[in-house]
Amino acid sequence: MNYEVGGHHLICLQFYHGKGYNQQFIDKLNEVVNRAKKGGEIEIIYGVDEICSVCPYLVDDTCNYNEESRDTAYQIDNLALELLKLSVGETIFWEDIKERIPEIIKTWRTEVCRECEWREACEGYRGD
Ligand code: SF4
Hints:
Layout: E1 3-6, H1 7-12, H2 23-37, E2 42-45, E3 58-59, E4 62-63, H3 69-84, E5 91-92, H4 94-111
Parallel strand pairs: 1-2
Antiparallel strand pairs: 2-5, 3-4
The protein binds iron/sulfur cluster.
Iron/sulfur cluster binds next to α1.
């Protein structure tokens, strides 16, 4: 079964290690990451993905984390796809994304992690 992941989740999930907004959200992250690591094919979509679908901040298919989050989410989703050289509708495997991370992480940290509220808990930000 394909499953749907969008934009910045493709990058940030590479650094996921068990933290999230609530237990339902964590359970979904665990499910998605475990399936991906076992070789499940990831279909790249735009906007609300399987992870957003259980997020407590999703209201009417829109990110309501804060006033800027909708625009910010689209911006970083676009940047993630650009850096990973991926397009909506393509499919990819976890290991293929992982291989691309070293090339892009410096830019990602500068452009995205710096403003991310999860950075203190995230391995993606470590090393700076
Ligand atoms: S610090 Fe935030 S933006 Fe950076 S990889 Fe981690 S979750 Fe993603």
